[in-house]
Specification:
Layout lengths: L1 H30 L3 H13 L3 H14 L4 H13 L3 H14 L4 H13 L3 H14 L4 H13 L3 H14 L4 H13 L3 E12 L6 E12 L2 E12 L2 E15 L2 E9 L8 E11 L3 E11 L4 E13 L2 E12 L2 E14 L1 E12 L20 E13 L2 E14 L2 E18 L1
Helix pairs in contact: 2-3, 2-4, 3-4, 4-5, 4-6, 5-6, 6-7, 6-8, 7-8, 8-9, 8-10, 9-10
């Protein structure tokens, strides 16, 4: 009896499903009585994020009007938005086989191939579109964008020159040209000045640096020259950073510097390996080495970084072993991006010293084993596509190495310029 009851229930559920499907088909059949109105409804469904429903209605329209190309292009668009690039390509090829000069199909095809990172095909479609529509601003701008995304910056600029001849005030052309100019600038020259003043004992100190960075396919190189004026002594420290591109999701950090003045470590070196993780996380692990006149300091460090919307959060601990124990310090950073990567504000804080601060009040490295706390804020502002301004302020409370338990306050003001070329 139980088996019989189950069989009846299954038949009932199957019948209900078939009835629902038939009713749904009837609803779409009624909507397709007017294919143009049905097309507008399908577009609305697609733009509302109901892409599967939009495709179902669109295919119902094609049953009645198989030559309705705009409907098929809409289907292709929804496939592209869902990352189903092959399905989108099939629908667009159908349109272009029947109407090789169909403008909207060419536009949609360029988008689909770029999103699929199939740049060779995207360029073929772009070249065909510009031959057919040599004075169409939207076609030209889309084609220039395709060339830019494919790394063909010179070809993109040639197309933008045609756009500017047709419309010298076109904003999209100016913005794309700006992006191309930025991406083609492999060199960055930066200069910074820092002033420290102390609540007691020490006279103000000054630091500055000038650095040149070079981007390449194998990573970024930075050559930096540091200058300091403190304790009635001046000193210079050259150093170099290298960020090698190792593999997909992996990059490194290498650093080396030296100096013949006691106000800098005699040698400094650093190694770190970074790895991108799912869900917008990144981690790293490495060390820093500092050679002073009378001691060596080895510092182990790493990071945990999380990207969330327009924010970047980083925690970086430093562990410094010695003969008398282990010193631990932590730096915290929260960065809020605004219009692009060259406009942001950074909030910093933590306790203990980090070797990146490059602020030393003794010649032995003992400051890594005294107490300190700090808060800071940095601003980075792009003035134009190749020029940026940055500034920062820090307030620190530091224990004196020669008087344990006694503290002074240190206030730091810094600023500088960055030029790309």
């Amino acid at each position: 009896m139980r088996v019989k009851h189950t069989f009846k229930l299954s038949i009932l559920l199957l019948s209900a499903g078939l009835l629902f499907f038939h009713m749904n088909e009837q609803v779409y059949a009624q909507q397709v009585d007017n294919v143009d109105e049905a097309f507008l409804e399908a577009r609305e469904l697609a733009f509302d994020g109901k892409r599967a429903e939009a495709r179902e209605l669109a295919y119902a329209i094609l049953e009645i009007s198989p030559g309705y190309h705009d409907v098929r292009i809409l289907i292709a668009r929804t496939y592209s938005w869902d990352g189903l690039y092959q399905d989108a390509r099939r629908e667009l090829d159908f349109v272009l086989d029947h109407s090789p000069e169909y403008r909207d199909a060419l536009m949609a095809s360029m988008d689909n191939e770029v999103w699929a990172e199939n740049y060779s095909v995207a360029i073929e479609v772009a070249n065909r579109a510009t031959r057919i529509y040599p004075t169409d601003l939207q076609i030209l701008l889309k084609s220039a964008s395709v060339q830019y995304n494919a790394g063909e910056e010179r070809a993109a600029l040639q197309i933008l020159n045609r756009v500017d001849q047709l419309n010298p005030a076109n904003r999209e052309s100016a913005e794309l040209r700006r992006s191309i100019n930025i991406s083609s600038q492999n060199y960055t020259l930066s200069g910074s000045y820092t002033y420290d003043w102390f609540s007691d004992i020490f006279d103000p100190t000054q630091k500055s640096y000038v650095q040149l960075s070079r981007g390449s396919s194998i990573g970024s190189f930075i050559a930096r020259l540091n200058y300091a004026d403190r304790f009635n002594t001046t000193g210079i420290q050259p150093e170099i950073d290298y960020y090698p591109s190792i593999a997909d999701g992996w990059y490194g950090y290498l650093n080396f510097g030296f100096a013949d003045s006691f106000i800098f470590p005699r040698y400094r070196a650093g190694v770190e390996l970074h790895k991108s993780l799912p869900k917008a996380f990144e981690v790293s692990l490495g060390f820093r080495y500092l050679k002073f006149q009378n001691s060596d300091v080895m510092i182990y460090t790493g990071t945990i970084t999380k990207y969330r919307g327009n924010w970047l959060f980083t925690i970086r601990p430093y562990i410094t072993p010695s003969n008398v124990g282990v010193s631990r310090s932590v730096n915290l950073r929260a960065r809020r991006y605004f219009a692009g990567p060259d406009n942001y504000i950074t909030f910093r804080g933590g306790f203990g010293f980090s070797p990146e601060e490059r602020r030393f009040q003794d010649v032995s490295g003992d400051l890594f084993f005294v107490q300190s706390q700090f808060l800071g804020i940095d601003l980075f502002k792009s003035l134009r596509y190749n020029l940026a301004l940055f500034a920062g302020f820090d307030a620190a409370r530091q224990e004196l190495t020669f008087a344990p338990g006694e503290f002074i306050e240190i206030y730091t003001l810094s600023g500088g310029l960055q030029i790309r070329f």
